[in-house]
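Risk register update: the risk of archive-format incompatibility is retired. Evidence:
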Amino acid sequence: MNRSVASKCAMLAAAVALSATMPAARAEECEDIQAALSKHADVLMKMDAKGAALCAGMGQLLGVIQAGRIVAEQCLEGDELKTAVNGMNDMAKAMEDGIKEQCK
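Archived output:
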């Protein structure tokens, strides 16, 4: 996968790490979901894809980022939520720009 895309997506792992500050009642479920999303993102970032396969992988990464934002909205509160959502929105925008550039 394109290095710039991969480096932008690496920020996803940092945002997912914020899940450690979740409310106790949902912490385990949220951590499991975030871990699964992070694992899937890692697999996608390691793909050596070109052409249509690259575009498909980038689209999947965009979906993972958006799913991570939804999970964060359900699991985080206060400043952690704001930081995570802002970071994921930035990543989603960067991924969308990458898709527009690479997938014409």
